[in-house]
Amino acid sequence: MEKILEIAAIEAAAFPTNALSAAEIYFMEENPGYEILTEGRDAVEAYLILFDTIEAWEMIKLATRADCRKKGLATRLLAKAKAMGKEKIFLEVRQSHGDTIRFYEKNGFRTLSLRKNYYRDTNENAVIMVYEKKG
Known about the structure:
By secondary structure, the protein is an alpha+beta fold. Helix content is 30%, strand content 36%. It contains four helices and six strands, in the order H-H-E-E-E-H-E-H-E-E. Helix 1 (2-14) crosses helix 2 (22-30). It starts with a helix and ends with a strand.
């Protein structure tokens, strides 16, 4: 349960308007359709939540604790996800988050499409991105 609470604390700081609750994270941890990957030595410093859509992974959340950013933790989590056997990983990101989009591009993702007015809190567009294994 400690891991869940650590993830929930990072989640609340990283996504103040649409954070998952500890109960939601616990549900994901306990259900086989989800995978929760973490990085950190003595505590969770970064996490990645994936949903298995059979054909691909859908990235639900990726976040790093504020005091642990710029250490390669998110990149390592993405590498773990890429090695988990699916040919594709999908995600959505706010269109205004240019640094985040560039981070994903640097890690092999490309823009697939745009979802208009996707985020309810601001009616902002979502950029849909995909990583596809080269093969």
